[in-house]
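User: tokens in, sequence out, please.
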């Protein structure tokens, strides 16, 4: 059940990032203090949620770039030193992850379930 909530949080947070950044180019993104700060916060939510996801769940979702998510917190701590990593995360890693989560929900609906499994 907790895994389903975490995967739902990943997907919804990713969707929020997509909405925030959809009409911005790289220059506009970095010039927009509020959008940039909120995107950085949401990227952190996604990175730490991905980190805390049980390994068994990550293994069932192998196409998601878990190493990229694991590396992102370092860039988020010093975003001015890693603008390309931040931009690539927002514009490539997030959309790909969201699409894969949508696809995986069809293949592994039990992972996304918010109801406890019945006891055997």
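Assistant: Sequence out:
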């Amino acid at each position: 059940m907790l895994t389903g909530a975490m995967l739902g949080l990943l997907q919804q947070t990713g969707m929020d990032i997509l909405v925030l950044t959809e009409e911005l180019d790289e220059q506009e993104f970095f010039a927009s203090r509020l959008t940039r700060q909120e995107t950085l916060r949401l990227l952190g939510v996604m990175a730490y949620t991905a980190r805390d996801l049980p390994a068994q769940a990550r293994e069932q979702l192998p196409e998601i770039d878990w190493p990229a998510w694991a590396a992102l917190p370092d860039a988020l701590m010093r975003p001015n030193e890693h603008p390309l990593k931040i931009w690539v995360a927002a514009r490539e890693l997030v959309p790909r992850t969201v699409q894969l989560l949508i696809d995986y929900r069809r293949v592994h609906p039990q992972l996304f379930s918010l109801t406890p499994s019945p006891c055997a």
